[in-house]
Amino acid sequence: MPLRPGALANLTVRDFDKRTRTVTIGQDKNGNPRQISLLQVIADFFAEQVRGKLPAASIFARSRGEAWNKDAWKNPIKEAVNKTGLPSAASAYTLRHSVITDLIRARLPILTVAQLSGTSVAMIEKHYGHLVRDDAEEALSKLAF
């Protein structure tokens, strides 16, 4: 999911609906709530995370039950980056950008990527538009002249 790290950290049990396999992102940079459908495997993972928790509890909590925040995840992510050999500049936000890039390269409509990401089409086009130039050329080459 192309979520901002803060939006992921803010998810509570009540934001997840196991029956419909959806998660509602309520607090995010753009301020507009949105609902995202989850793949079954992700919904199953979320279901494990919420089991036995109260509706106001964080879906993803630290080992002592505290909610994640931008300061709490810096060191664990840095450790994971080092252990996996990723570039040292990789961060939680890098994951968001990687997912957006993958969705664009998979030719998901830019409007859908923007909706999933909680950002505007203009912002997606500005930062990721270069990824679809080849798609346009390929589509044009298929036209019969």
Q: List segments where confidence is low: pLDDT < 50 over at least 5 consecutive residues.
A: none
What are the secondary-structure elements, in order, as H or E?
A: HEEEHHHHHH
Beta-strand share of residues:
5-15%
**What is the structural class?**
mainly alpha
Shape: globular
Q: Sheet bearing the most strands, described?
A: 3 strands, antiparallel
Strand order of the largest sheet: 1-2-3
CA distance, first residue to last residue = 40 Å
Helical segment count: 7
Q: Mean pLDDT score, rounded? A: 88
Q: Considering DSSP H and I runs of 4 or more, what fraction of the residues is helical?
A: 40-55%
> Measured on Cα atoms, how large is the radius of gyration?
18 Å
| Counted beta strands | 3
Summarize the model shown.
The chain is mainly α and 145 residues long. It contains seven helices and three strands, in the order αβββαααααα.
Question: Mind explaining what this structure looks like?
Answer:
By secondary structure, this protein is mainly α. 48% of the residues lie in helices and 7% in strands. The protein is built from seven helices and three strands; from the N terminus they run αβββαααααα. Strands 1-2-3 form a three-stranded antiparallel β-sheet, covered by helices on one side. A hairpin with an 8-residue loop joins β2 and β3. α5 packs across α6 (121-128). The longest helix is centred in the middle third of the chain and has 15 residues, at 70-84. It is globular and about 65 Å long. 15% of the residues are buried. The mean pLDDT is 88.
